[in-house]
Amino acid sequence: MKRTLLFLLLAGMVSAAPSADKSSAPKKEAAKTHKRAALQSSNGIFSLHEAAAAGDTDVIAARLAEGFDVNELDEQGNTPLILASVAGHRAAVKALLAGGADVCRPDKSGKTPMDLATKSGVKKVLAVALDKRRLEIELSAKIEAGNAAAVKEALAAGVNPEAFAADPTKGNLLALAVTCKKTDIAQLLMAAGAKAQTVLPDGRGMLHVAVDAGAAELIPLLLKAGADPMHQAKNGATALHNAAWTSRVDCVRALLPAYKSCGFCPDGKNQPSPLAMASARGAALQMAFINGGADPNKVAQKEGETFLFLCVQRNASPEVIKALMARGGDPTIKAANGKCALDVASPALRPLLKK
Fold it and tell me: Can you give the three-state secondary structure of the chain, one letter per residue?
């Protein structure tokens, strides 16, 4: 409560001192710097919520660029947009809306930014945003219904193709189209300016969205449009990690060409490699990697085990072992523990490891 009161005082919501001379630019800048320093002193961090309450558009821009969630609720149940609206900071409201703030998201009592806005200038900005949001929500419904003609008409009328879906937890409109497996609509959105490189607030890229939806048919389209296959979600996983982990074989097949240069083992923070995942996920997935060009002797784990070693150790099917050996698999390569595939093979698989 003390912290909330502090930044509301500094934002001008509670009268604590005579107002500064607004005609003096140097004084205004000095006051802004003083606000920032005081807020930082509360806990060493100038958060997006505090910046919104203080009307500091510089820090708002910095925090949004750092990936802060523009619609996150604070301990009191307020979004940054609500705090800026209550404080009457028109420029901050515009900055937050431009950063993807949901003009309809209420506080914990159910009141929206428009309900709580205190100044006519802020209300005008919010009214325009609400009109735009209504059109975006209508477009979301058209996307889910698969009405490509209506989507095309809405985009031609100027609806923002990069807007959030009606349910912001589903990401933006392109993510919604991908999730709904609407290839024609995804193409329309990207032609209108929606970016395949967009990273959602939850950290997923569009390829992650496609994998999560099992939308393998959209993956080549997204890659061609510039989606980054090496992007890691917040858990450190690339789209190929997710596809391998969930055994989405069609998605793996669609993704493999984008990972060939790294041997299908892209960096993934705190993640086993996709080849290591595949070795424990069944013959269909393993054969997808093999037929896609996976090297049987590629080190798939930091302990030095090769793809062949792991498949043998995990008792893969004879079909898989034969395919790995036919592609040059070497069962004598030793891992860090000094063992090779021959050492860990079951009696049934050992004869298949003969060169």
Answer: CHHHHHHHHHHCCCCCCCCCCCCCHHHHHHHHHHHHHHHHHHHCCCCHHHHHHHCCHHHHHHHHHCCCCCCCCCCCCCCHHHHHHHHCCHHHHHHHHHCCCCCCCCCCCCCCHHHHCCCHHHHHHHHHHHHHHHHHHHHHHHHHHCCHHHHHHHHHCCCCCCCECCCHHHCEHHHHHHHCCCHHHHHHHHHCCCCCCCECCCCCEHHHHHHHHCCHHHHHHHHHCCCCCCCCCCCCCCHHHHHHHCCCHHHHHHHHHHHHHHCCCCCCCCCCCHHHHHCCCCHHHHHHHHHCCCCCCCECCCCCCEHHHHHHHCCCCHHHHHHHHHCCCCCCCCCCCCCCHHHHCCCCCHHHHCC
pLDDT tens readout for residues 175-221: 999 999 999 999 999 999 999 999 998 899 999 999 999 999 999 99
Give me the torsion for CA of 179, 184, 185, 186, rounded to 10°.
60
Mean pLDDT in residue range 263-282 = 93
Q: What is the mean pLDDT of residues 121-127?
A: 94
The letter for the amino acid at 91 is A
pLDDT of residue 326: 97
- pLDDT in the model for residue 25: 53
Q: Distance between CA atoms of 101 and 167, rounded to whole angstroms?
A: 13
pLDDT in tens, 13-45: 433 333 444 445 555 555 454 444 444 434 445
pTM: 0.78
pLDDT value of residue 69:
85
Q: Set out the domains of the chain in order of their start, with CATH numbers.
A: 1-118 (1.25.40.20), 272-355 (1.25.40.20)
Looking at residue 169, its pLDDT comes to 84
* Contact assessment for residue 63 and residue 78, using Cβ atoms and an 8 Å cutoff: no
Structure tokens at 270: 């705190």
**Locus of tokens 């898989």:** 320
pLDDT confidence of residue 14 = 34
Question: SS3 sequence, 87-112?
Answer: HCCHHHHHHHHHCCCCCCCCCCCCCC
